[in-house]
């Protein structure tokens, strides 16, 4: 029972489901009927569903048939109307076709024109687009063309700027074009090319600077010399050691700034051509000779490229090498002043360039680098000067070298380089200069003494007298009262030697100029050098003359007279030095002149030589003595040799009138004693074993002749019978022998 109810319930549910599906089929679009049918197939009542479906179809067919039967007459009428319409439609179709044909025929040209218009519009649109694209590309191409032109004309720094604009401003706007990609790929190569070419220009500049350093230095030193001359004109007074030289702190700095974009700077070597200037023309500034734009350009280029440090290291390394070459002096530098001048010019030129680079660039070189180079240069320069100056034997060359070194130091001092060591070295050269002066003056004194006639200077007019008095400080009231012609007591070598001593002092003074020495230091230097001249050079020259074998008594007497007057002139030399140095002799630590000692020593040597010479002359006469100790004959007169000897002594002592009294007296006494001793030796010599009375009487006559000579007073100043005492022993011996 329950089972039957359950079956009946299921049947109802199935029937309801089938009804739902049928409604969906009727109401659903054909394209979406698939899911509905699938639900039928998923179920188990296919047969029953088909039955229901057939039933529903038959129902619909019956409804359609009923509807058709109801509307059949209307359908027939409609068909009839349609047939009528078809004929009209055919006519309309024919008219439309004919009209279309006519329209096609008539519009064919229009269509062609429209096609042409279409093509023109397309071309116009393409052209407009092309123009727009070209407007974007043209600045790129123009910049690239400008870049190539700048590269071609070697304007590398502007080219680098152009390259920067091209890369960062223009190329990004057209980066999708193939030619732009080619440009982008070439940019690193162009940078390297600019870098290499600018470095090549720098190398050319450095090489040219190395070759022309002497010209740059010469110009700088000329400028310094001009400034010094102007300073001296402003001072309007000679600087001879009274004050330290007042030197301006700085000369006009030759600082002509050269723009990095100078028109000529693209292909130049760094040196401008300058004709040789005349002395009266304005000397151009040292930097006017140099175009530094290659350095500036290369520095800017490497800075922009981020390689500034590389550039700085390269520049400093190359300049150090050049400095070593510049500081290497030529082997024959000491032979001429031009050798030293060229050496100094190169050094000055080198540091003028470096100083300009220091002040016109930011960090390419720094003060520490410059100071290091200068320390090296200073040590090498001083060493070279010490070596080469030691070969100089010409005082004029040494003096010119000193002036050149002073100008060299002053020029570099303008640029801030310390030069104290150079002035210290000049003090060393000063000693060498003094030695060369002494050697030169030794020759001068030798020539003066050799050419002198050793005779008093005769003057025949007042003009000659005043001229000689102006050459040598001599005053003698008695001589002034004498009528012309008259004679000065000294020979010509006195004023010549005196004036040469003054010339020597002037020469010493010339070396002390511009050495930044105090007046006391200059005075001390001159006095010490003059003392060396007097005590060594002049003294040796006088001694050599005095010791000559062929020197005569007249010459010796004149030398004594001359040295006496030169000794008196020493005080005038003191005054002369005081006047030119403005340092009083009473100043503490002032060196005194030793001229008095020099002339005294020379005079004493001449006196000794006179004594010796007189004795030698007496010996020569005595060699003529020919006593026959066994002869009995008596001539009743003194021997001929003795008469000649006495005559010689009288004439000789007559020359001694201008000698100091003691010198003449000593010479006379020495001669008489030597004569007495020599005669006694003749009488007492071992070979005389016996003698006759006649021979003794003859010898006694000779002794009397000697005594007579002593009594005659050949030299004034002896007390009565003083000179005869020289012969007293001989008289006693002769009297004793005669008495026997």
Distance between the termini: 230 Å
Strand content: under 5%
Number of strands: 2
Number of helices: 23
Structural category = mainly alpha
- Strands of the largest sheet, in order across it? 1-2
Rg, Å, rounded: 66 Å
How would you describe the shape?
A: rod-shaped
Mean pLDDT across every amino acid position? 79
Instruction: Tell me the major beta sheet.
Output: 2 strands, antiparallel
Order of SSEs: HHHHHHHHHHHHEHHEHHHHHHHHH
Produce the secondary structure layout:
Blueprint: H1 2-27, H2 34-42, H3 46-70, H4 72-152, H5 156-170, H6 178-235, H7 293-304, H8 308-326, H9 337-360, H10 367-389, H11 395-414, H12 420-451, E1 458-459, H13 462-471, H14 477-481, E2 486-487, H15 493-512, H16 519-546, H17 553-568, H18 570-581, H19 595-622, H20 640-655, H21 661-684, H22 693-711, H23 728-739
Antiparallel strand pairs: 1-2
Helix pairs in contact: 1-2, 1-3, 4-5, 5-6, 6-7, 6-9, 6-11, 7-8, 9-10, 9-11, 10-12, 11-12, 12-15, 12-16, 15-16, 16-19, 17-19, 19-20, 19-21, 20-22, 22-23
């Amino acid at each position: 029972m329950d089972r039957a109810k359950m079956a009946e319930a299921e049947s109802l549910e199935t029937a309801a489901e089938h009804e739902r599906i049928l409604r969906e089929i009727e109401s659903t679009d054909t394209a979406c009927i698939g899911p509905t049918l699938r639900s039928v197939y998923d179920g188990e009542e296919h047969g029953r569903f088909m039955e229901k479906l057939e039933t529903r179809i038959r129902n619909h067919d019956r409804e359609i048939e009923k509807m058709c039967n109801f509307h059949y007459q209307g359908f027939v009428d409609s068909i009839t109307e349609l047939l009528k319409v078809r004929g009209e439609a055919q006519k309309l179709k024919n008219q439309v076709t004919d009209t279309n044909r006519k329209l096609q025929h008539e519009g064919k040209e229009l269509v062609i024109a429209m096609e042409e218009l279409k093509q023109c519009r397309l071309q116009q649109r393409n052209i407009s687009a092309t123009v727009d694209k070209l407007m974007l590309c043209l600045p790129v191409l123009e910049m690239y063309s400008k870049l190539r032109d700048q590269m071609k004309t070697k304007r590398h720094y502007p080219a680098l700027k152009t390259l920067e604009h091209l890369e960062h401003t223009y190329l990004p706007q057209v980066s999708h074009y193939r030619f732009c990609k080619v440009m982008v790929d070439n940019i690193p190569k162009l940078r390297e090319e600019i870098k290499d070419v600018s470095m090549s220009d720098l190398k050319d500049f450095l090489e040219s600077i190395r070759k022309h350093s002497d010209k740059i230095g010469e110009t700088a030193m000329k400028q310094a010399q001009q400034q010094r001359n102007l300073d001296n004109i402003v001072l309007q007074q000679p600087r001879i050691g009274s004050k330290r030289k007042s030197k301006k702190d700085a000369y006009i700095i030759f600082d002509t700034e050269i723009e990095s974009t100078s028109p000529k700077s693209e292909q130049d070597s760094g040196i401008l051509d300058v004709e040789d200037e005349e002395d009266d023309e304005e000397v151009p500034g040292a930097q006017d000779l140099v175009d530094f734009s290659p350095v500036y350009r290369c520095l800017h280029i490497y800075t922009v490229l981020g390689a500034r440090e590389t550039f700085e290291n390269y520049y400093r390394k190359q300049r150090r090498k050049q400095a070593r070459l510049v500081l290497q002096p030529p082997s024959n530098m000491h032979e001429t002043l031009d050798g030293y001048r060229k050496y100094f010019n190169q050094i000055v030129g080198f540091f003028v360039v470096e100083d300009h680079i220091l002040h016109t660039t930011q960090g390419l070189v720094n003060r520490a680098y410059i100071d290091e180079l200068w320390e090296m240069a200073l040590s090498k320069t001083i060493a070279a000067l010490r070596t080469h100056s030691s070969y100089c034997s010409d005082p004029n060359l040494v003096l010119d070298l000193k002036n050149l070194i002073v100008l060299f130091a002053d020029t570099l001092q303008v640029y801030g380089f310390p030069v104290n060591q150079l002035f210290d070295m000049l003090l060393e050269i000063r000693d060498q200069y003094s030695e060369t002066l002494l050697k030169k003056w030794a020759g001068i004194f030798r020539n003066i003494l050799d050419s002198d006639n050793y005779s008093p200077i005769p003057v025949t007019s007042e003009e000659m007298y005043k001229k000689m008095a102006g050459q040598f400080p001599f005053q003698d009231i008695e001589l002034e009262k004498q009528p012309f012609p008259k004679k000065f007591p000294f020979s010509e070598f006195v004023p010549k030697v005196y004036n040469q001593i003054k010339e020597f002092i002037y020469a010493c003074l010339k070396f002390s100029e511009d050495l930044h020495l105090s007046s006391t230091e200059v005075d001390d230097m001159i006095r010490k050098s003059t003392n060396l001249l007097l005590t060594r050079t002049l003294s040796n020259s006088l001694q050599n003359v005095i010791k000559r074998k062929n020197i005569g008594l007249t010459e010796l007497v004149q030398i004594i007279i001359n040295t006496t007057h030169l000794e008196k002139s020493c005080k005038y030399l003191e005054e002369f030095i005081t006047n030119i140095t403005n340092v009083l002799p009473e100043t503490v630590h002032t060196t005194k002149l030793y001229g008095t000692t020099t002339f005294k020593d020379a005079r004493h040597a001449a006196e000794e030589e006179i004594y010796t010479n007189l004795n030698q002359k007496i010996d020569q006469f005595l060699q003529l003595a020919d006593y026959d100790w066994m002869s009995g004959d008596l001539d009743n007169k003194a021997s001929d040799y003795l008469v000649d000897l006495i005559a010689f002594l009288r004439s000789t002592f007559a020359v001694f009138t201008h000698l100091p009294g003691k010198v003449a007296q000593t010479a006379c006494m020495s001669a008489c004693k030597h004569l007495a001793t020599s005669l006694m030796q003749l009488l007492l010599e071992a070979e005389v074993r016996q003698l006759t009375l006649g021979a003794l009487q003859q010898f006694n006559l000779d002794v009397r002749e000697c005594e007579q000579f002593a009594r005659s007073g050949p030299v004034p100043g002896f007390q009565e019978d003083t000179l005869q005492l020289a012969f007293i022993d001989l008289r006693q011996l002769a009297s004793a022998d005669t008495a026997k």
